[in-house]
Amino acid sequence: MMIRIVIAEDQGMLLGALSSLLNMEDDMEVVGRAKNGEEAVRLVNELKPDICIMDIEMPVKTGLDAAEELNGKTDCKIIILTTFARPGYFDRARKAGVRGYLLKDSPIEELVNAIRVIMEGRRIYAPELVDIVYDEESENPLTERESQVLELVAEGKTTKEIAAELYLSTGTVRNYISTILDKLGVGNRIEAISRFKEKGWNK
User: Fold this and answer.
1) Which of 3.30.1660.10, 1.10.10.10, 3.40.50.300, 1.10.1200.120 is the CATH number of 144-199?
2) Between the chain's N and C termini, which has fewer beta carbons within 10 Å?
3) Do domains 3-134 and 144-199 have the same CATH topology?
């Protein structure tokens, strides 16, 4: 049986190389190539492949957003192939029903093997990621409201603008911000934003 594959990757050279390498396998055929998450969702719905290999950082729609959108709506099994060994990303991927999560520096044989194993109904996660998840607390420590405040800070809004948007007093917003800095263990707003994004907690 031929395994039909869609690849979503915004780096053209890598997209071409991956397609060529997988097409060399007797039981695999790359039927579609996408440059962003939105194209990936469209191709999966149109072509109904067995497997979709997805990068995370892509324009228009990230691989994680695409995986979340497809979750439960398709029989296509999703494999995330990324350079990012981040617990927050991995956590989101698992919740989105992703069957495989591999790092781009893995040898091609590992990806080929993972595709076959996933087709048998199993899941494959890079060992480095599983270690990180157990080493670090990957849950977002912020409450929903604190996350909301930090998202607005990340958009460049001032304390006054955030207060107006969330119907709070400026004093309350300042309290939220100091709680956020404490919880994330950082010294200022810029560090808080980068820690939040690095962990993959921003939706």
Assistant:
1) 1.10.10.10
2) N
3) no
